[in-house]
Amino acid sequence: MYGVFGGYTRWAVVFLIIFVLFFLFVPAAAGAAAY
What we know:
single chain, mainly alpha, 94% helix
């Protein structure tokens, strides 16, 4: 149970990091494109 939950938590953290990087990169790319 702990192994499954640990794996799920690890994937959740990885997904969260990717989501944050995506949200930080999209506005910068949109601003560059707008320019």
